[in-house]
UniProtKB/TrEMBL annotation:
PROSITE patterns: FLAVODOXIN_LIKE. Its EC number is 1.6.5.2. It comes from Pseudoalteromonas obscura. One of its GO terms (molecular function) is NAD(P)H dehydrogenase (quinone) activity. Belongs to the WrbA family. This is NAD(P)H:quinone oxidoreductase. It is an enzyme of class 1 (oxidoreductase). Keywords: Flavoprotein, FMN, Oxidoreductase. Residues 4-176 form the Flavodoxin-like domain. SUPFAM superfamilies: Flavoproteins. InterPro entries: Flavodoxin/NO_synth, Flavoprotein-like_sf, Flavoprotein_WrbA-like, FMN_Rdtase-like_dom. The keyword Flavoprotein applies.
């Protein structure tokens, strides 16, 4: 059984909804899931530690887009992980990324690439969404080859579409499958 860390920051609930879809899918497949945030915004939030990173067998990492970049809360955390990097403690662990923006061209793909940078520096095995996921070809909202995405709307009121949910589930399934193979 693999332990998967689902690590996210959510300002208005969209990224949290994606994280929950990913976590529920992982749980249903038998993974041990650690759902963590960067800061405690809600009473149920558990703040990530470097030990959570070290102990995980795979990572799903998401934040809202901030002008094509990760949220500052996430960046602040990754900047504290040099000691983990020096010891190579994340090398060869599989990872995927996910994001949400308020508009269709709001920077989701750039954010996914930005989220990927610290993971690549840590030597993680980065996974995207392959084109055998049919929703990737038919989406009219979120979803990219780089990772799962959501378009929340300018007022952040849009719920995850069924297509976005299916892409989140496909990403979670792939992450768990690869994590088990690498154990």
């Amino acid at each position: 059984m693999a332990t998967i860390l689902v690590l996210y920051h959510s300002s208005h609930g969209s990224v949290e909804a994606m994280a929950n879809e990913i976590a529920e899918t992982l749980n249903a497949q038998g993974a041990t899931v650690r759902l963590r945030t960067f800061v405690q915004r809600q009473p149920h939030d558990i703040v990530v530690t470097k030990q959570d990173l070290i102990e995980c067998d795979g990572l799903a990492f998401g934040t809202p887009t901030r002008f094509g970049m990760m949220a500052a809360q996430a960046k602040t955390f990754w900047e504290t992980t040099s000691d983990v990097w020096l010891k190579g403690q994340l090398i060869d662990k599989p990872a995927c990324v996910f994001s949400s923006s308020s508009s269709m061209h709001g920077g989701n793909e750039a954010t996914l690439l930005n989220l990927s940078l610290p993971l690549l520096h840590h030597g993680m095995v980065l996974m995207g969404v392959p084109y055998d996921v049919p929703e990737l070809l038919s989406t009219e909202s979120g979803g990219t080859p780089y990772g799962a995405t959501h378009v929340a709307g300018l007022d952040n009121s849009a719920q995850l579409t069924e297509t976005e949910v299916r892409i989140c589930r496909a990403v979670a399934t792939r992450l768990y499958t690869v994590a088990k193979k690498l154990l």
